[in-house]
């Protein structure tokens, strides 16, 4: 039996809901957005919106309250969907804002009533949810959902940590994972959790430079894209956002969020006997697991780490 193309990595509990909301607020600071959408999207031209894998609906709620949309609520319809409705806000919250919700796996065909319906589709941070086959199916489905000339907004993060300096691989190549996972530093060990988990689940490494060609193959024209550093811990105080915004207020919060994610992944790999840090050294005891997580957390808080993120705005051809 083939592995599923959709694999949500973290249970939809309260800590994960809090993390997703915090992640959205920090992402806006990283990209320097003062609105829920970048300048390549004109809210005045948007009438029907779909937020896929909406999670806590942080983006949907931001959109519905944005001046350019709230002033036009009588003519704007907003829908959200997620594979797990438990992670959405209570119906009292979404109903109050006029947001329509439904359950949906993005890799599966949507109901025919939704085809060709939307001016704007948003999907964010499925880095640790979709395999390459899942991405192919998702982009095909999004293309079918959009009205002629409709736009899709995607933003993703590469599951790989850097010391502060980063660069995309040369065209046609990929990250040198041995370089980033083969050493004994705490960052190498962090990648032995974060990147190794992604590899085990067959998630795509390098979406920041792969999504452009994937969108073109699915029938889109990329209209805007930017790459930005996504700092965690100490580096929030030294690396500005893409357009100079300070990310310092998120120093402690980003470290807390990262510690939560890495504990979730490390614990899973520890239980199935696949956790190695450094690479080739298997973690076999609870004390060693806790020591590993403590080392990475202390490194994040005292030195900091950065990942690479990118957003894409593309139009249906």
Automatic annotation (TrEMBL):
Q: What is this protein called?
A: Methyltransferase domain-containing protein
Matching entries from InterPro entries are given as: SAM-dependent_MTases_sf
Pfam families in alphabetical order: Methyltransf_23
Q: According to the lineage, what is the superkingdom?
A: Eukaryota
Which SUPFAM superfamilies is this protein grouped with?
Answer: S-adenosyl-L-methionine-dependent methyltransferases (SSF53335)
């Amino acid at each position: 039996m083939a592995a599923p193309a959709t694999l949500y990595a973290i249970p939809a509990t309260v800590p994960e809901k809090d993390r997703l909301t915090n992640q959205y607020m920090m992402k806006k600071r990283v990209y320097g957005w003062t609105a829920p959408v970048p300048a390549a999207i004109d809210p005045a031209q948007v009438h029907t919106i779909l937020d896929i894998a909406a999670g806590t609906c942080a983006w949907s709620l931001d959109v519905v309250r944005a001046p350019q949309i709230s002033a036009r609520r009588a003519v704007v319809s907003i829908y959200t969907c997620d594979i797990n409705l438990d992670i959405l806000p209570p119906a009292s919250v979404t109903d109050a804002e006029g947001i329509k919700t439904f359950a949906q796996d993005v890799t599966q065909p949507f109901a025919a009533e939704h085809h060709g319906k939307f001016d704007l589709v948003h999907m964010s941070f499925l880095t640790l949810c979709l395999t390459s086959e899942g991405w192919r199916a998702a982009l095909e489905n999004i293309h079918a959902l959009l009205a002629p000339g409709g736009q899709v907004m995607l933003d993703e993060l590469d599951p790989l940590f850097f010391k502060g300096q980063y660069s995309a691989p040369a065209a046609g190549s990929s990250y040198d994972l041995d370089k980033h996972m083969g050493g004994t530093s705490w960052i190498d060990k962090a990648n032995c959790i974060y990147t190794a988990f992604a590899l085990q689940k067959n998630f795509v490494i390098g979406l920041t430079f792969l999504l452009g060609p994937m969108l073109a193959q699915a029938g889109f024209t990329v209209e805007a894209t930017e790459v930005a550093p996504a700092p965690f811990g100490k580096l929030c105080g030294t690396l500005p956002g893409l357009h100079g915004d300070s990310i310092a207020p998120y120093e402690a919060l980003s470290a807390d969020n990262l510690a939560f994610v890495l504990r979730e992944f490390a614990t899973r790999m520890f239980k199935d006997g696949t956790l190695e840090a450094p690479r080739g050294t298997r973690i076999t005891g609870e004390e060693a697991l806790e020591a590993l997580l403590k080392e990475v957390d202390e490194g994040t808080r005292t030195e900091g780490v950065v990942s690479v993120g990118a957003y894409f705005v593309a139009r249906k051809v």
